[in-house]
Design a protein that fits this description.
heterodimer; A: 416 residues; alpha/beta; Aspartate Aminotransferase, domain 1; Aspartate Aminotransferase, domain 2; 2 domains; seven-stranded mixed β-sheet; three-stranded antiparallel β-sheet; B: 323 residues; 11 helices; globular
Chain lengths: 416, 323
């Protein structure tokens, strides 16, 4: 660890108990792993060359570092490095995958015909839904499939939604708000059998659960750096080569990234996401198990102490560190304000400023009132058992107090 | 901080992933029917709207203002004009205030790509007279992967990236906060750095004087007009740019044969072609850009290497140096 990274870490560690709440919102963003920072720093300082300047070593060293990072990202999902392009984040990757595939198909019709139908889930991330809405304005047809009460897609419903005109299915790997993991392999197989492209937004899943583009028949996969202990401002899109998936770029210019995404590549950020992927590859299995245990500890603790606590989303098929609960009768914002010692949220950071009840929880069949009580908790690589215990105490005590204030049952009177 | 770099209000600053994205957002986001771009724009502008009308430039690389005025006057559709503040290959600066004035007079919007100029010369949004300004952090000593489009008026833009509604709905995606902080730091430091560029201008001028002394047939493109203080596009007639880059590289001098984004590609520079530079001269032009770490010794070293190459290629005995 460099002196800088060590210093940053020690500042943060010492500041933690007093100044900053315990961080349990790892779905919205994660802390940069100090090992990732170490890998990045030289590319901010000595190795600052423009990776596209092929005429001198400054540029070539940067270019080599980027290619190594590309390989590390590709390796984690069983892809060829040539199938991975870098973008500014998962939002851009999702926009590029969905709009790019649709617009390419429209620009290159076969025999005057092109497939103009897209299927996605009503619970997808806003940037997927907004990209689809944009395509609707451009004349495409979009089916927003409802999900089951568990948050999982019904494969029968999906199969029934596919038509001769269906071009693309977009289903996220793991959910940002409720943590549920969709059956990617089954969806991929279905899509492949119908000749439909399969895109998955793996912003939450990448580096946390096993993803294999071959076994899962994935054609396009969006990846984020800052959700996996890498830097913000960088993401990637996997684009299948065989059979080749063709996209129309969103951003033209110098022709970087095989003409699919122009713009000077930010070398330190590419190196960061590469290192983050390599660390995840080495540690994912053990880390998933560790987080699952912490998650169970949190869930058991809260269930024991909060009467009527309800888990949202499938109990088994979920990300190791992700939980979403309804605290009955307690508006989520009140609970969050009552727990200043922990950093949690009601859902997606993008929409958490909104006062609307979560559209995701509504899609699971919850009433507006219930959806307003939904709390998202995200454990991460740096979460400790002590922090989990602290969170259980804080949440249970706050829930009890708020319930008493509003004259409702809160903390269970007969703890086991 | 970033807004202050060009004396613009902070609420107009939209953070994006870099200059290329900012240029796209500007050209595609205003929804104007007609887009006019100068012929020497960066590829990220030219390719954002391939069907855009090209405004010709003169031999010095300066936009032909009367042609621009005529183009705008003869077609009443709402238009957007895009012209860069300073060219990335030659350093030539456009008369942006004039361009902005013409655009305003003809009810057109004006977008100015200031990626190359910011931090090297003092900027003032009001003086530029642009509705939209592109900035890039890594061109002014900030981190790569962050840039901004500055909207100086209350203009509404159609977003390029849709999603979580960040940046007031104008650009979705989790903000690259360390990048933004680095950008702000660089923007703050840039004000102080601009004085440094007076020194760099002297170095650049001494480099060009040195070249003129060594090789009377060498050409500095855009030498007659206002240029960025750190950039020189120098032609060594009859010697390919590639040869020069490799030979200078072997002597420990890093230069490039044009824009970095396209320097891996073959093909003559569209910038020099638009200036009416002949194909032979285009093929023998290199770009030299100095930074704040450049020193007198670096210039002397460059001139030595350049002179050695020149003499080798001319097959002449060493001549007496005039300076």
């Amino acid at each position: 660890m460099t002196a800088t990274a060590a210093a940053l870490l020690s500042v943060r560690e010492s500041a933690r108990p007093n100044a900053m709440p315990i961080y349990l919102d790892n779905q919205s963003s994660t802390r940069l792993d100090p090992r990732v920072l170490d890998a990045m720093l030289p590319y901010f300082t000595e190795q600052f060359g423009n990776p596209h300047s092929a005429s001198h070593p400054y540029g070539r060293i940067a270019a080599e570092a980027i290619e190594q990072a590309r390989g590390e990202v590709a390796a984690l999902i069983g892809a060829d490095p040539r199938e991975v392009i870098f973008a500014s984040g998962a939002t851009e990757a999702n926009n590029l995958a969905i709009k790019g595939a649709a617009r390419f198909t429209r620009e290159h019709p076969r025999g005057g015909q092109f497939r103009d139908h897209i299927v996605t889930l009503s619970t997808e991330h806003k940037c997927v839904l907004e990209s689809c809405r944009r395509l609707e304005q451009e004349g495409f047809q979009v089916t927003y499939l409802p999900v089951e009460a568990s948050g999982l897609v019904s494969l029968d419903a999906l199969a029934a939604a596919l038509t001769e005109q269906t071009l693309l299915v977009s289903v996220m790997a793991a959910h940002n708000e409720i943590g549920v993991m969709q059956p990617l392999a089954e969806i991929g197989e279905l899509c492949r059998s119908k000749g439909v492209l399969f895109h998955t937004d793996a912003a939450q899943g990448f580096g946390k659960i096993a993803l294999d583009v071959e076994a899962m028949h994935i054609d396009l996969m969006s990846i984020s750096g800052h959700k996996v202990y890498g830097p913000k401002g960088i993401g990637a899109l996997y684009i299948r080569r065989r059979p080749r998936v063709r996209l129309l770029p969103l951003i033209d210019g110098g022709g970087q990234e095989r003409d699919l995404r122009s713009g000077t590549l930010p070398t330190p950020l590419c190196v960061g996401i590469g290192r983050a992927a390599a660390i995840a590859a080495a540690e994912m299995t053990a880390e998933a198990q560790r987080q699952r245990q912490l998650r169970d500890r949190l869930q058991t603790g809260l269930t024991r102490r909060v009467t009527g606590l309800r888990l949202n989303g499938h109990a088994e098929s979920r990300l190791p560190g992700s939980l979403n609960f309804c605290f009955p009768g307690i508006p989520a914002m009140q609970l969050i304000e009552a727990c200043p010692g922990i950093a949690i949220s009601t859902g997606s950071a993008c929409t958490s400023a909104s006062v609307e009840p979560s559209y995701v929880l509504r899609a699971l069949g919850l009433s507006d009132a219930d959806a307003n009580t939904g709390i998202r908790i995200g454990l991460g690589r740096f979460t400790t058992p002590e922090e989990v215990d602290f969170a259980v105490d804080a949440l249970a005590a706050a829930a009890s107090r708020l319930a008493a204030e509003s004259g409702m049952a809160g903390e269970s009177s007969n703890p086991i | 901080m970033v807004g202050a770099l060009i004396e613009a209000p902070p609420e107009g600053v939209i953070f994006v992933s870099g200059g290329t994205e900012a240029n796209h957002l500007a050209l595609l986001g205003t929804g104007r029917d007609r887009i006019l771009v100068s012929a020497v724009e960066h590829d990220s502008v030219l390719r954002a709207v391939p069907e855009a009308e090209r405004i010709p430039v003169d031999r010095d690389g300066i936009v032909e203002l009367d042609v621009l005025d005529r183009l705008l006057a003869t077609d009443p559709r709402p238009a957007l004009v895009s012209a860069m503040l300073a060219n990335n290959e030659t350093g030539v600066m456009q008369p942006v205030a004039e361009i902005g004035r013409i655009a305003r007079m003809r009810d057109a919007l004006f977008h100015c790509d200031a990626a190359q100029a910011a931090g090297r010369i003092a900027l003032d949004a009001a003086a530029i007279g642009a509705d939209l300004v592109t900035l890039s952090a890594h061109k002014l000593g900030g981190p790569p992967g962050i840039g901004a489009l500055v909207v100086t008026s209350g203009l509404e833009l159609t977003p390029l990236l849709r999603g979580g509604g960040q940046e007031s709905g104008r650009r979705a995606g989790t903000e690259n906060l360390p990048g933004i902080a680095g950008f702000a730091g660089a923007a703050g430091a840039a004000a102080a750095q601009i004085a440094v560029y007076d020194r760099i201008r002297e170095l650049r001028d001494s480099l060009e004087a040195g070249i003129a002394a060594i090789a009377p047939d060498a050409v500095v493109l855009g030498a007659a007009v206002s240029r960025l203080p750190n950039t020189a596009a120098v032609a060594m007639p009859g010697v390919s740019a590639e040869t020069q880059v490799i030979a200078l590289d072997l002597d420990g001098v890093m230069v490039s044969a044009g824009a970095a984004c396209s320097s891996g590609k073959v093909g003559p520079s569209h910038v020099l072609q638009a200036m009416g530079v002949g194909p032979d001269l285009v093929a023998s032009t290199i770009r030299v850009s100095l930074g704040w770490t450049s020193s007198k010794a670096d210039i002397a070293h460059f001139l030595e290497a350049w002179a050695a190459l020149y003499r080798r290629c001319r097959g002449r005995a060493p001549r007496a140096r005039a300076a």
